[in-house]
Amino acid sequence: MYGFLENRVLEVEEKHREEIDVLKSEKLHVEDILSKQNGLIREMGQQLNDAMHNNSILQRQQAQLMETVGQLTTLVSQYNR
């Protein structure tokens, strides 16, 4: 009787060790995925900041261009009088 119970306990312990090993492996996999996602999020954040900066520059250049076109229009209209 004790031999059977001891064997059964050993089997259950072995099964639990295997399950723990699987869970540890899955945990490492999830941590790896999270690490990659965090890196991508940081990269995307930097790209967003760069795009916003470029957009600001383009808006300033557009305003300057509009001002220059307005000045040229004024000059041409004065010349045509």
From TrEMBL:
Pfam families in alphabetical order: ANG-1 (PF25443)
Domain Angiopoietin-1/2/4 residues, every copy: 4-76
InterPro entries according to UniProt: ANG-1/2/4
Domain of life: Eukaryota
Protein name, per record: Angiopoietin-1/2/4 domain-containing protein
